[in-house]
Amino acid sequence: MQPITLVKQTINQAFPDFKVYVDSIDAEDIDDVQSTQVLLTESNMDNTHHGDGTFNSLSVSVDIQIFYGEDFDKDITVSEIQLMKELESEGWTIVDSQPHYLDISQTDVQQTIKNLTINKIMTLEEIGYTG
Asked: What is the pLDDT of residues 101-115, one digit of tens each?
């Protein structure tokens, strides 16, 4: 299974109210500042762990960008800790966590944004390669 799909499933299970997108936010939702949106993008995929003259696993990184909606009424820090713990329980390592910032491109409502990068080493079989 595609690694980014595994991350999407984890976030959907932990935060069913979040709208989670892969690669881009849908055009009809791009200006939605009420809902919390999460954008996932693949940031790195390198082969690693070599044996028998070939590589046996991949180091996969995913960037997570959270756009908190106006209706988000929970503690942001506690929610992010919950998210990171959920990802860790699935074998992901948090390799970068940027400070929050405001989306200044919005004039009426400025959304709080959080950026995380996670990494996981996956065997080729875990990814679905059977060759």
From this structure: 998 876 677 789 999
